[in-house]
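Example 370.
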Amino acid sequence: MIIGVLKETQKGDNRVAITPKIAQQLIEKGFEVRVQEDAGANSSYKNSDYSKAGASIRTKDDLIKNADILIKINPFENKELEKLKKGQIIIAQLFHKSHPHDMKIIAERGATAFSMDAMPRISRAQDMDVLSSQNNLAGYKAVIKGAYEMTKIFPLMMTAAGTISPARVLVYGVGVAGLQAIATAKRLGAIVEATDIRTETKEQVESLGGKFIMVDNNGEESEGGYAKVASEDYARRQKEAVDKSLFKADLVITTAMVPGRRSPLLITEDQVKQMQNGAVIIDLAAAQGGNCELSVMNKAVIKHGVKIIGTTIAPESVSTNASDLYAKNTFNYLVHLTEGDHFKWDLEDQITDETLIVYNGKIRQNGKIA
Ligand code: NAD
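Predicted structure in complex with nicotinamide-adenine-dinucleotide:
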């Protein structure tokens, strides 16, 4: 089977879905790998690296015309989808719930689509979970960006000219990104506090040396590993418990999300007014509406003396590492889906069932043809 690796077309995304190392591993598994010219150029992988790994360099048209499986990171563009052939398989993060029109085009073309972002949160899917591998890098990068924007340093420093006290970092949301943000801020020497609606994260925060701010969630626990939408009552209790830390913080990193919903509003303008002058907020939930009322996606705004940066800190800013991890996730997924060089189509398997969104021209929902 021929795998075609497409160059990302989303502005600013420097990643590539398959790296030369993984191309070689796929070839060893019996696949033929063809890569679009310069697909890896922005992640430090040259065409010659792919050639050395045994892949061939092709044009986009050639790939779309001839590959059995087309792989990308971001959703396919309409003009790419419209060229799909009957029986062709595409693998990407398709975000099918928010892109129903794309699914319709794929189905009309008689193609098949697997969506990496629909990966179930079960232990055996962990090594195929691109949301985790990429969010982990986002958590790290959020702290580095925060450090760059701050007018203070992180660690305690005793100098002849006086003592500098450590920076105070507050993290909202202790999922994959939040945990890495805590670990990174701790390593840089900050005092770190964190909170999450899922109280089971307390132990994880403490194991990284952070202080957990407990908010009574009154049984508003998670569903399938994800948080549920918090009630107004919870939001009020959260403010009461966290405000003291928020108003003392030098850097606030917000990562709170609820899948398929607007991200919860955790910091209002009124709260920003009470924060320290010069504090920085990095809002990683900005693409889903933001955790801070004043966040603007892809912008840094200064309001009431606080710099608020709305971003996804898309891991594309660390594209080499992000591509390496994404490619390994994809390799593990392909190995899971196939036997030799053919697909198993095991619809009894939860991973296949939940990630197979369009099957031979039919849109699936909850394991059934819709
Ligand atoms: P996420 O990106 O959906 O959300 C980030 C965090 O925000 C979560 O911890 C969530 O509880 C929190 N949050 C939501 N609403 C909040 C609110 N109102 N106030 C405070 N916090 C709020 O989460 P994620 O990073 O995808 O991880 C969620 C969980 O799933 C984690 O425990 C993670 O380890 C687990 N996980 C498991 C697998 C697997 O087993 N294959 C894969 C990935 C993640």
